Amino acid sequence: MFKHILLPTDGSDSSDKATQAAVRMAREMNAKVTAVHVVPPFHTFTYRPDMIEDTEEQYEIDSEAVARKILSTVEQQARVDGVVCESVVIRSDDIWQSILHTATERNCDLIAMASHGRSGVRALLLGSETQKVLTHSQVPVLVFR
After folding, report:
1. pLDDT, tens only, 2-11
2. CA distance 94 to 91
């Protein structure tokens, strides 16, 4: 049915569980997956402690390393299940828009993601990225709880 699944991930437990289920589903459908992690660009004024403590150059290095580590979890799961997997890091403040843009740009026919990732103040400030994807997507969205 679906041939190319986009897997947005933030590295949270719920996102990892969604990834595992989506990769197994991709195996059953003989689909490929693209994992995406969206990293906010450096800002001088921010609520994120990793930006407050770092220089822009150090933040870029550290955030890339974190993103690659998060994406390697998806890549490893795909390898174990025999699923073709690409991964992409995007720098943007607009997470849900980046997810939708990636789905369109990469010709994905399904977006599979967790119902929630961030919690606490970060979720309060940013709102639900999953809800925004559901609201605006032209591509079918499968939400894992």
Report:
1. 999 999 999 9
2. 9
